[in-house]
């Protein structure tokens, strides 16, 4: 128990009362003693009438898992045994640094016939993947007069797994696969000139492409027959995710690495649904995670499990070692989706050289996350000298980023440079474009 500010003001109020009484008559100094005794009795009575901490029961239910970028809810059930008066309890959770701090939340216990109880929900907003812990709950309440404050700590000590946002992947997949065009390769496409894999023969009718006429088969059957094709399947797609220090920086409240993992999982789901084989690589200064390309939607949980093991590392990305190792392991020409980031032309020089070397053997899709805040700063009208300096620096970063992307594009590397809001959609569209053009 401890006194509140109201209690301190109550005791401090006796000082001017004593001074005034003594100024009137020195024999009235006993007024201070009477006032002090009265304040002590009132404060003690308030402490006795307040709820004892042993009568307060706390039950905590934490979510089994939280998707990165979303908010989980921790459910608290507070009950006071044998308490029949309204009571306010302030709750402050003690969380790991990887969870966003939650302010003090008041819980108003509503009295019933026997107890007073309330159900409270607190938001848990993860800032990165992992297993952050909810350590404890700090509770405090006051007596009926608000003079004495009681405090207690309810130990929780539970881990809350924060996993890649597969929920967003599934939601996007449902919207994506409702479009017939996105299912190229999974279902037989009847579009003229689409695909290069032979499907069947059909009798020629006016309107069909005469270039598809199979003259040998027509001669055998004594009628004009056309070849039908379908989109080729069984391509090999490798999702290469950079987990170096640049990818640990937050973007829209979520680390770049988690944006990359979410978009890569969505692309992996689409590739598996369309019949391609998907592999996964996580690298920084070396390859940390490797999964050979395999086909079938039943392999998606494997990608999900391995992507959750790609951790944040404060090390410089070694493109020379990682991409050379990747080239040595891949024996078949593949589509390599390289998800990474860079700062300027100087730091990106070594990255560009190794990406171009990789593109000699494989088809490379270079994917980078653009910070919309830098663009807004570059386009903002400066009103102060500091704002002008920030605008110039942001504009320089944007121009150097454009130079690197254009250099890769002119060398034959497919590039996607998008903000988080359009990141996944542009990545899927580029993959489908590559598949339709049969560039793999």
In terms of per-residue confidence, which ranges show pLDDT below 50 for 5 or more consecutive residues? 181-193
CATH topology of the largest domain: Rossmann fold
Strand order of the largest sheet: 1-9-8-5-6-7-4-2
Shape: elongated
The CATH architecture of the largest domain is: 3-Layer(aba) Sandwich
Count the E strands.
20
Query: Helical proportion?
Result: 25-40%
Assess the beta-strand content as a share of residues.
Answer: 25-35%
Compute the number of helices.
12
- What is the CATH H-level superfamily of the largest domain? von Willebrand factor, type A domain
N-to-C span: 72 Å
| Mean pLDDT level | 83
Q: What is the count of structural domains?
A: 4
**CATH class (first level) name of the largest domain:** Alpha Beta
Largest sheet: 8 strands, antiparallel
Structural class: alpha/beta
Radius of gyration: 33 Å
Structure characterization notes:
The structure is a single chain. The strands form 5 sheets. The protein has an 8-stranded antiparallel β-sheet. It has a 6-stranded mixed β-sheet with strand order 17-16-13-18-19-20, sandwiched between helices. The protein is elongated and about 130 Å long. It has 12 helices and 20 strands. It has 440 residues and is an alpha/beta fold. The chain has helices spanning 5-12, 14-24, 30-49, 166-177, 215-221, 256-273, 300-308, 319-329, 349-359, 372-379, 385-410, 420-436; strands at residues 2-3, 56-61, 66-67, 72-80, 87-95, 105-111, 116-124, 133-142, 148-159, 162-163, 197-203, 225-230, 236-242, 250-251, 254-255, 277-283, 287-294, 335-340, 363-369, 414-418.
């Amino acid at each position: 128990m401890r006194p509140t500010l109201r209690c301190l003001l109550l005791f401090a109020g006796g000082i001017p009362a004593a001074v005034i009484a003594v100024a009137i008559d020195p024999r009235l100094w006993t007024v201070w003693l009477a006032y002090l005794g009265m304040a002590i009795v009132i404060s003690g009575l308030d402490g006795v009438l307040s709820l004892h901490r042993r009568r307060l029961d706390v039950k905590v239910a934490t979510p089994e898992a939280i998707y990165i970028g979303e908010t989980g809810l921790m459910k608290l059930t507070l009950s006071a045994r044998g308490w029949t008066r309204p009571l306010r309890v302030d709750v402050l959770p003690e969380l790991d640094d990887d969870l966003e701090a939650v302010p003090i939340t008041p819980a108003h216990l509503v009295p019933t016939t026997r107890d007073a109880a309330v159900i409270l929900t607190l938001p848990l907003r993860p800032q990165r993947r992992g297993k952050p812990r909810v350590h404890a709950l700090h509770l405090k309440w006051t007596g009926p007069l608000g003079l004495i404050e009681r405090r207690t700590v309810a130990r929780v000590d539970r881990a809350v797994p924060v996993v890649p946002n597969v929920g967003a992947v599934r939601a996007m997949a449902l919207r994506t696969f409702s479009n017939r065009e996105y299912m190229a390769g999974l279902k037989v496409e009847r579009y003229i000139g689409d695909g290069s894999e032979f499907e069947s023969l059909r009798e020629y009718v006016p309107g069909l492409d005469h270039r598809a006429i199979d003259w040998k088969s027509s001669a055998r059957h004594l009628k004009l027959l056309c070849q039908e094709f379908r989109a080729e399947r069984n391509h090999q797609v490798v999702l290469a995710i950079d987990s170096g220090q640049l990818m640990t920086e937050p973007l829209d409240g979520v680390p770049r690495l988690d944006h990359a993992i979410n978009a890569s999982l969505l692309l992996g789901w689409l590739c598996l649904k369309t019949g391609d084989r998907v592999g996964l690589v996580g690298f920084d200064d070396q390859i940390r995670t490797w999964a050979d390309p395999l086909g079938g939607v039943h392999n998606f949980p494997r990608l999900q499990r391995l992507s959750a093991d790609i951790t944040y590392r404060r090390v410089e990305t070694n493109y020379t070692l990682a991409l050379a190792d990747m080239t040595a392991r891949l024996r078949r020409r593949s589509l390599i989706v390289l998800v990474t980031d860079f700062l300027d032309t100087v730091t990106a020089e070594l990255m560009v050289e190794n990406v171009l070397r990789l593109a000699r053997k494989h088809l490379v899709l270079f994917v980078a996350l653009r910070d919309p805040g830098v663009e807004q700063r570059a386009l903002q009208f400066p009103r102060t000298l500091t704002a002008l300096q920030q605008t110039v620096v942001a504009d320089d970063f944007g121009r150097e980023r454009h130079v690197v992307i254009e250099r890769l594009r002119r060398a034959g590397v497919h590039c996607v440079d998008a903000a988080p809001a359009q990141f996944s959609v542009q990545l899927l569209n580029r993959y489908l474009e590559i598949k339709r053009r049969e560039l793999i």
